[in-house]
Amino acid sequence: MPIKNWLIIVLLFSGKLHAQDITGLWKGRLYNDSTKMYYKYEIGISEEKGKLSGFSHTWFILNDTQYFGVKEVKIKRKDGKIIVEDDKLISNNYPVAPAKHVRQLNVLTLTIEDSKMNLAGPFTTNRTKDWAPLTGHIELQRKNDFWNSSLVPHLAELKLENKLVFVKQEKERQQLLAKDEIRKKEELENMAFNPKKIEPGPVSTTPAIEVEANEKTLSPEKTTGKIELIKKQASASKEVSALKTKNIKNNNEKIQPVLPEEKKEIALSPSINPAPAAKERSTIAPLNKKTIEAPAIPFPQAAAQIKERVLEVQQTVSFSSDSLKLSLYDNGEIDGDTVTVVMNGQILIAKAGLSTSAISKTIYIPKDQDTLQLVMYAETLGRIPPNTGLLVIRDGRDVYEVRFSGDLNKNAAILFKRGKK
317, 348, 310, 307: which is closest to 415 by C-alpha? Predict the structure, then answer.
């Protein structure tokens, strides 16, 4: 291939990457050169009127407690790179106060492999009077399931999720779908309760026409006989109709409601009928207060409506050990989410309130059992629906993180399948 043609193709491809839409949720990890540790990292990128903006979210687990930080970031394109710079820290639960005036700068390169979009590159922090610069590396991939992210639930709690245009558009789309479903349901209900009325057809006049024709064509004797027969039939019909009317009237008279005797007595004035009241008082035994017990209030059962809700498998996890350690966390700001965990139809954890501290349970799996089903049943939705949580699964040295989402109509399910060792 001539060098000129090759150069044109490279330039066109480069231009395509430069113009590529990068809005959406990017999930991955951040590696810190100083601590030698990986941290979960997400960026939400929005574009409005040609201007890029967004938020970042970093989180990690230390001693079974989840820590996070949410920042507002500035985003721009420069020399074929995506530059992401911290603007301000808007929410965190760090165990110590974060360093002031420290800003992180990401210089990321966009690549596309097998229709998957990736952002990767180094990051640095600025030097301050008290802190030396940090360095590291970031790897991100664009995802569509942003409701299962860590970032969006935090922004929803802070009432900032609409600042991400792609979240706002999806919410509007879901609202339109919900309105359309309600409209269709109302139409079906109207059809069920208001069926179309069948208009009565025109009264047939055939007998009268036939009589008139017969009178003109038949002899006087035959005509007279026909007329007499029709008169007798009409008279009989009137008698039957009168009899039916009389029966209906009689039936209506029989079913007239009669007030019960006790209701009549209650309606009377005590001055008019004092004797029965006195008699009633004399026959009623005094109550024994010690024998009266307060009615038992039934305690709501965990996962009471699990069969009535739709089951949605949100992830499949492969495992190899005979035991798994499960740790549950809230997937955003702590807003009162409560879940019941059901494993293969048996309640494993009942009505657990999710927070940044782990709710842990170790399950032991028989060697002959290769499949498990874990159902996350939302007992409450907290202040911000839906019910979202993070499930961390430790399978020996392997660690898996599953973010689930459910509501009062849908249960989140996670399938576990034994893999080959």
Answer: 317
Domain boundaries, the chain: 3-168, 310-418
Q: What is the pLDDT of residue 253?
A: 45
DSSP string for 65-127: EEEEEEEEEEEEEETTEEEEEEEEEEEE--SSPPPTT--EEEEEEEEEETTEEEEEEEEEE--
Report which of 368, 365, 339, 384 is spatially closest to residue 154, judged by C-alpha positions.
Answer: 384
Question: What pTM was estimated for this model as a whole?
Answer: 0.59
Number of Cβ atoms within 10 Å of the Cβ of 241: 10
> pLDDT of 243-293, one tens digit each?
555 554 444 444 344 444 443 343 333 443 444 444 444 444 454 544 445
Strand boundaries in 198-291, DSSP class E: none
| Model pLDDT, residue 221 | 47
The CATH classification of domain 3-168, taken from the options 2.40.128.120, 3.40.228.10, 3.40.50.150, 3.40.50.720? 2.40.128.120
CATH of domain 310-418: 2.60.40
Report the alpha-carbon distance of residue 403 to residue 391 in Å, rounded. 6
Helices 206-217 & 220-254 angle (0-180, nearest 10):
160
